[in-house]
Amino acid sequence: MTSHLVTGIGELVTHDERWGGPLQDAALVAEDGRVVWVGRAADAPPADRATDLGGAAVVPGFVDSHTHLVFAGDRSAEFEARMAGTPYTGGGIATTVAATRAASDDELRARLRALADEARAQGTTTLEIKSGYGLDVEHERRLLRLAREVTDETTFLGAHVVPPGIDRGDYLALVTGPMLAACAPHARWADVFCEPGSPVAFDGDEARAVLGAARDAGLGLRVHGNQLGPGPGVRLAVELGAASVDHCTFLGDTDVAALAEGDTVATLLPGVEFSTRSPYPDARRLLDAGVEVALASDCNPGTCFSTSMPLMIALAVREMGMTSAEAVRAATLGGARALRRDDLGHLRVGARAHLAVLDAPSHRHLAYRPGVPIARGMVL
Fold it and tell me: Which intervals hold domain Amidohydrolase-related (predicted)?
């Protein structure tokens, strides 16, 4: 094994409680891709090779635990209409499904890899990627197969919406039967868009059926819930032990209490609210209740075409009542917990050596300098 010393770190965020906060004038050593030593630069042990960051701040690599990166087509006109006041209903997903089905593997692969590279250039070192733009057996399996080329964190989302012209009961049987069987070998997770108020999404009973079948197939559970209005998504996710319930825009007291009492992570997606003119989730309410919160991009062509986790941090601080430290934690350790990963999202000894290096003296600059490309990923 070759050891690698990273020194010259002006500020190091580790999420290691024994340090009591960020380390100043810090260093770390990695061997075989894992952190083996963290501390003051003056105390650093010798290593086979060294990189001096010249005073840059370092945080754990961002863990983007909710994306839809395998797709074709363009929905910029839909975005422009929303900026003019047209509400989001989920109906535009069918447009992306048609374009994605028509695209070749190479076309989908090229865009997927370009978006993954774009995310990593901004400090994201772990991506979750969902299907959901195929909505039949062949294309859902294809999307997951392609996603597996860039990440192990793949999610079957055949229950994204009910395609036009298909009976709801027939489609639910397809998702929980042949489609699930074909897709499960290519997925770690299953997800469902649970929004009873939407004509295309799934109600609580339908979502329960999807999640139950997925659990029986050996997949972990995730839920799109409470995005468009109040509903059963959050409570269903907690009841079934889902790793994460995502969006969480419209929450009642019972939803917050359920999250606080369970171990389901509330994943907030502020880029969606930015791109749909919807109200932002109340992160402060969740944090004050003791809920584990994650931030993710939800990068997709319809409601947030951004791979930038620094932007999500800035929006969380500006619009959702989070401090810079809380937002960075949610974008790193929170995201890792939303994926049930204890080897990511922190820089304690034993963690994967995934870093986000900032062209700045402090993690605060991620919110302080929105839109400026100050972060880059480094995997040792």
Answer: 58-361
